[in-house]
Write a structure and sequence with these properties.
With 283 residues, the protein is of the alpha/beta class. The protein is 42% helix and 16% strand. The protein has one domain: Vaccinia Virus protein VP39 (Rossmann fold, 3-Layer(aba) Sandwich). Strands 3-2-1-4-5-7-6 form a seven-stranded mixed sheet, sandwiched between helices.
Length: 283
């Protein structure tokens, strides 16, 4: 029941989406999540210490990214969405997207084959393409980026739940490759702080294979990306958004109480994790 490969985490997150979708007060609905997670997903997640306690953060991340994606498509005329390490995400099927939008999912071939098999009778809301690729292979990654992003004039790239598993230099290389695509002006991702990284390593690390570990949480926060040509345009704090969406973690009142002690502590809590929208700047 341990996490042996990074693709296993896709089932983990799909289960969280299923749990939220089945609530009477759900903040989003993913009717495919339970099927994609598979029959063993719940046992797998429950076998990982405190994994269920992390559900709120993944649920909030999903909802906030949904909001930003829809806004970018409607207000900024995004015509291509490239989802890197797409996993078992089902946004092309469940979001109210325009029919002419091209959505490209890039991930390992077995992950995409599994999704294609399980969703073969479902019709996406927009045009959908799948790009089998090992994103750790620089040349294969650049080829996939060029092929997908050349199809539009105002593309958006998503890296949801990806960066935290990469080394610092790998994230820098990805940021450089993305900036090297001349049509790309927007990048949507999630980001953890060093404090949160240490918490995740302590709580989940033993259940994860050595090749699947939480590693990236830059002390600089979103400013990490500036030398690579990316400027933070919007930061949505997970803690703030959880309160707004009524999906706060258990014991959140204690965290809020502690954060009142000083402005520094309050900001540290706000910045523990969040969703970041970045715009293209100078290299």
């Amino acid at each position: 029941m341990n996490i042996e490969h990074v693709s296993d985490t896709a089932r983990w997150v799909a289960l969280y989406r299923a749990m939220e979708s089945e609530r009477p007060d759900a903040i989003f609905h993913d009717p495919f999540a339970r099927q994609l997670a598979g029959p063993d997903a719940e046992a797998m997640v429950r076998a990982i210490p405190r994994a269920m306690d992390a559900a709120w953060a993944m649920i909030v991340r999903t909802a906030v990214m949904d909001e930003i994606i829809l806004r970018m498509v409607r207000e900024d005329d995004v015509d291509v969405v490239l989802n890197l390490a797409a996993g078992l995400d089902t946004r092309p099927y469940r979001l109210d997207l325009p029919e002419n939008l091209l959505w490209v999912e890039a991930d390992f071939a077995p992950v995409l084959a599994y999704k294609t098999e399980h969703l073969e009778n479902q019709v996406p809301r927009c045009r959908l393409a799948r790009e089998p690729v090992d994103l750790a292979d620089p040349q294969a990654r650049r080829t996939a980026l060029h092929r997908a992003l050349a199809a539009g004039s105002r593309p958006l790239v998503i890296t949801e739940g990806l960066l935290v598993y990469l080394e610092r230099d790998q994230v820098g290389a990805l940021a450089t490759d993305l900036h090297g695509q001349p049509t790309l002006h927007w990048w949507l991702t999630d980001l953890a702080s060093p404090r949160l990284l240490r918490m995740m390593q302590r709580s989940h690390g033993r259940a994860m294979h050595d090749d699947v570990q939480f590693t990236f949480a830059p002390p600089e926060g979103p400013d990490f990306f500036k030398p690579f040509g990316w400027e933070p345009a919007e930061f949505r704090s997970s803690m703030d958004e959880a309160r707004r969406l009524n999906r706060e973690m258990r014991g959140a009142w204690i965290v809020h109480l502690i954060s009142r002690l000083s402005k520094r502590q309050r900001e540290e809590v706000r910045r523990m994790s969040g969703v970041v929208l970045m715009r293209r700047g100078g290299a």
